[in-house]
Sequence to fold (448 residues):
Amino acid sequence: MTSSSSRAADGQSRRKMRTRAALLGAARALLAEGREGASIEEITKRAGVGFGSFFNHFPGGKEELFDEAVFEILDGYAAWIRSVTGDLDDPAEVFARSFRLTGRLVAAQPDLLAPLLARGSELLLLERGLREVAMEDLTRGVATGRFVALPAEVHLMSVGGVLLGLVQLLTSSGSLATDEVIDAISAGVLRLLGVAAGEAGELVTRGLPELPSALMTDGQVSYS
Amino acid sequence: MTSSSSRAADGQSRRKMRTRAALLGAARALLAEGREGASIEEITKRAGVGFGSFFNHFPGGKEELFDEAVFEILDGYAAWIRSVTGDLDDPAEVFARSFRLTGRLVAAQPDLLAPLLARGSELLLLERGLREVAMEDLTRGVATGRFVALPAEVHLMSVGGVLLGLVQLLTSSGSLATDEVIDAISAGVLRLLGVAAGEAGELVTRGLPELPSALMTDGQVSYS
Fold:
């Protein structure tokens, strides 16, 4: 390629990435407003891109866009969780902090996660962000004898199932969406994993970092 | 009404009930064969009823029929669970037996429950059969101090979530669908509810009744 055609290709590729990012940004904003029913016309208008460009980027339609938007949110959230648990050695402590924070995320932003919930428990199989962070921690917890000796996959389905149940509880009965209830459930999950009751109760009283403020507004988390 | 017109109305009502029962029976058989994709034509043929009668009974179409078929299976199963735990006083023992049996049902008949799974965690809110049996037991367990003092609704979402996770595990990774894994998960759920680890481990080693053989073939359980 000549240098000028290469520059043209770079420009085209940058434009493509901008269009894609704009569509995902619009999707995140709509999700945060609980408006995943928005039309493609509204989405492209909000993103400031042409209607015709939509299917170039998301041939699967709105569902593909919203799914990808939520996956990216969760990937960003998972990277953040990794960064705020990096100082901890004990897998039980890592788990307690992660689960309690995730419960708070769900309570604060139920609409954000609605499209994923519609996928039901199949969600637990998706090899993205949060699942991998959880698998690493569960595997280490089993290897070190901190958690009950079962395949990490089995633990993942149990704790992921409780998380789904928690999400359902919070979306259906907002009055139970308190930090106290979330921490009580987290202690239960720690006991399920094999942590002694007294210790589980203590682990869920420790201080927590604040959720990233951007995540609490439009779901945008920068990868760290 | 004259006696003869009353007899005619009775006859019509009996015919209606027979048609409905035949459609539900065909749906159960198809579910057990993993064939929920069957056409309405095939369903009515199998049920031995006219194509036109389908929408009189299930105006919502196939989804309504299959949902109702699974609900009836679960209602029947719930009644059976109630009958085989009636001899137990301890809510933890009732829970252990119920959860272990339900795990075995799921492992033996994953296709039967597939249409419900597609509803995801929303399933946990359905006020039918199994949910009510579980709520009664959890409420009693909390009231007697056997389970952690939380609203029974909160416990239900946790244990129901683990059940969904277990279903997903079994349908996605059949090799983990062993009684041993199901019992290990059951012990975890007992600990989550507040039962001490040693006792939880012991509770899941006790003898279990056989699942009703009819349930294991075509999902038909007679109400008791």
